[in-house]
Every structure is written in structure tokens, then in C-alpha cells.
Amino acid sequence: MLLLLTVLLQPAAQAKAAAPQTTAPQPGVLLLYDSLAAGTPREGNVRDLERLLAAYSVQVTVVSLDRYEQGAMEAYARVITVINDPRLAAGSSYEADIDHYRGQYLHIGYNPPAGLQRTMQLSSGLIEEGSAGLSVGAFRVPVIKLQQVPYIAAGRAEKTYGSLTLPGTSDNVPYAINSGSYTYAPYLDTGHAGRLAMAYVLKDWLGAADAAESYLVINEIYPFSDLALLEKLAGRLYDAGIPFIASVRPVFSNTDFPAMQRYLDALKVVQSKNGSILVNAPVVMPSINSSDHTLGDKMSSFINLLAENGIAPLGMGADLYWTYDKEYSSAGMKFFDSVVLFPDENVIHMEKTNVSAAFTSSLYSMTPDFLADLTHEGKAMPQLPVGTAVTLNLPGDEAGLEALLQTVEGYWITFADYKQAAHKTVTDNYSVTSADGVLRVNGEALNVDYVPEVVSSDFQYKEEQYQSFRGLFSVQNQFFIVVIIIALLFFGGLLTVGYRLYRRKYLK
């Protein structure tokens, strides 16, 4: 009995002993901020930072410092703090944790923590107002406007990032520095220069791969767009040897109409001209119903429709806030492992969350204006630190088409072919993949060659309703028509006979 009890109790004792093991840090980055800097040049820098982090395929948890709970940062291997206002207190819970934090820490803005200052032997200054120059990587921005911006006057650093020319002098100071587990960048505004410089810092801080491609994305493509112009644009880009991505709006109803068939045919032409297809996020209306959970089924049906027609969607284009919404990310974006994230325009959440969805491949969208502010050696654009999507809207006329082509060719960018990389889109019915330029649907290589066909406009838009007594009424109508004709003939005969009898009587 004692032996039996020993055998029975042994597994329970082992399980109990295993329980106190520590939990490994969660993947991703904890992003803390003191304020959103409304009304200052730094307004929007937290959102810009979120979009840059997303471009490095990082899951981000965003928390305001006034809601920070003590001990929260210990679950993360990397923490970023953005201090936009030196007058705001960080909070005792945060200050207690930051002194004992041993992960990789990046501080942006004012009031770096005491531990960082001691390790880096940091000495800082303040630019009250003036114009400075910024050099980072292979790029230079000759003039940037600065106001109430701190800078690194001196410090011990293992690495430096960029070079800032102080206003009114020829003195150069580093944009950011790193020493051990600490990295410090004094400022991040919403200008193009600041975002580019921060992209270099994040690339090194996150240990991102060196390879970063640039892609051309044509956005705002709808079924009612000028599809002939879209096909012409695809042909012109193909002739110029420029691969591109078409981010197309989905259609959830009336997909059997001729207009939809013309839309699909235009996308086939785009695909045949070395264009890759993304499914753009549908337009969200202010009247959205929070109890409507049909987005997943609608997106799945559209992806299936594309695959059934020989079109391979390789990813999704969406505003950044979609990745911070439980419904949009879990229902609308779950089919894709690749995305292009655009700046937020009209933010309408359904179920907002502070934890972002991360994707294997994620591109940072920028406009040609971003590139126009940068100068570099030679004509060819140097490699950017992050995977980018140079985004242009589909033009509305021939003049816009010519302007777009001149813009694309004027920047001397070597655009990459999106389908050369690995992408995957999966629904219940279809698996669409790309690798080394080959598109596959359910494992079978897709032939992208396509000759456009004329779509007939002869279509019955309204289904004919069933009429139960239609046959009976038809027989009745024919019967009454025959009776009326006979009656008319009979009365006509009577009139003729009566006329003749009256005529004879009158003549007599």
C-alpha cells in the first residue's frame, strides 16, 4: 500500500514543483507616451512611430504614462518612451520600473531617465528656434525647422545615428546615440526628416534585416474607376519595365453584374502587365453597426471571387488604425500575412484595442512628397532603411496619367517586384501564394497571360417574379378576344342586313 501511494503521489509532486517557473517576455514592443503634443510640431509623432514599428513587423502595445501599471514593462524585451512635454510628470510607477528595467530601452524626447544619463554620461542642450541640417544614412535634408528641441551636446556612445547641424553654426551633433541597452533620440517631429532618421534608429535597435525594398503602389481603384485608363497605365508601366502593386477596393454585392466582370477583366490585365494585386480595406461608414460581424464572410467571398477568376491577391492595403481594432484585424485582415499600411485618414473604430496586429511583411507607405524633401549623391535613389510603398492614386484623366509617369520616372527608384517575395493569402476555399515571381492558387501555378474580352451589357438586372395564374389569365385573354371579335362580326352583319332592308323600303 505504501509503495502504491508513493507511485500515485509522485506525478503530483513533480507538477507542483514545476509551477513556479518564470514566464518568458512577450514578443513585441511596449510604447509609452506622456502626451500627443497637440498643437506642436511633434503632434502625430506617436502615430508615426507606430507606423514605423509596424513596417518592421513588430507587435506594439501602446499605453499612456498616466495609465501605466507598475511592473508592466517587465513582460517586454523592448520598451520605448516618448516624452513630448517636459512639464508633465511621468508617474511614480513608471519611474520605479525604469530604474530596474534591464531590456532594450529607447527614449525619445525630453527628460531621459537618470539611469540612461549616467550610463551615457549624457549632456544635452536646447534649440529654442532655428533652422538646422540633418544627414542620416545616404540622405541629407539641408533645412529643417526646429523649435524647443533638445539635442545631444556630449555623451559616451557605442553607436551614433545621423548628424544634426546646429542653427547658426557649423557644429555637428549626433541625431541619436546608443550605449549598451540604452538608446536616446532627442526629438521626433512629424516632418519627413525626423521620420527617416528614426527609421534608421529603429532598424538597428530592432535588429532588422539589411534588405529593404521599395515598391510602387497605385491606390484608390474602384469598379467605377476609369478602367480603360487603368489598363493603359499598366501597359505604360510594363513597357517602362516598372513593376507595381494595384490596391483594389473590394465588392461585396452584385458581383454578377457586367460592371463587375469588367472590373475583374481590368484586374486580369493589370496582373498580366507585371502588376501585383492587393485587396484594399473597404470604406468604413460613420453609421457602422457594432453588432455587424459579417466583415470576415464578405472579405472571404471577395478573395474567393478573385481566385475563381484567375486573380491572385497577395496582401491587403489598409490604414494603420485597422491593426488596432479587434474586429477589423481579426475578421478583415486575418486572411493575409502581408500588408501595406497607409496613414490614417478617417478613423472609425469598431472595437479599438491598444495592441496592434503584426504581419510577416509590412510596408511603410510614403508619398512622392516625402522623397522630394531628401537629397542624395547621384541620380539613383539610395536604399531606404525600411520596406516602403511609394503610393500614388489612380489618375482620373490622360493628363494625370502623364504626370504620374513623370513622377515615377523622375525619382530614379529601382522598384521591386512584389511577387518575387513570399506572400500568402488563405480562405476556406483557396490558398494564394507567391515566391520568386510565380503565383500559385491551391498549389497550381497561375498563368497570368490574358487577352481582354468584350463584356456584354445585355443583362437582366431584376429577376423575373413567378406568376402562379399567368397561364390561366393568358387563356382567358385569348378566349375573350375571340368572343369579342365574333360579336363584332355578328353586329357588323346585322348592320349590313338592316341597311339593305331599309334601302329597299326607301326606294319603293
Q: Would you summarize the structure shown here?
A:
By secondary structure, the protein is α/β, with parallel strands linked by helices. It has helices at 2-18, 45-55, 92-100, 114-120, 192-206, 227-239, 258-272, 295-308, 326-332, 368-372, 398-410, 470-507; strands spanning 26-33, 60-64, 76-83, 104-109, 123-136, 139-154, 159-165, 172-179, 182-185, 214-221, 244-248, 275-280, 313-319, 338-342, 361-366, 375-376, 388-393, 423-426, 431-435, 438-441, 444-445.
Give descriptors for this structure:
32% helix; alpha/beta; single chain
What's the total count of β strands?
A: 21
- Residue runs with pLDDT of under 50 for 5 or more positions: 1-26
- Indicate the overall shape: elongated
| Discrete helix count | 12
User: What separation lies between the terminal Cα atoms?
Assistant: 146 Å
Which strands sit side by side, in order, in the main sheet? Answer: 2-1-3-4-9-8-7-5-6-16
Radius of gyration: 34 Å
Explain what you see:
There is one protein chain. The protein has 508 residues and is an alpha/beta fold. The protein has helices at residues 2-18, 45-55, 92-100, 114-120, 192-206, 227-239, 258-272, 295-308, 326-332, 368-372, 398-410, 470-507, and strands at 26-33, 60-64, 76-83, 104-109, 123-136, 139-154, 159-165, 172-179, 182-185, 214-221, 244-248, 275-280, 313-319, 338-342, 361-366, 375-376, 388-393, 423-426, 431-435, 438-441, 444-445. The chain has a 10-stranded mixed beta sheet, sandwiched between helices. The chain is elongated, with a radius of gyration of 34 Å.
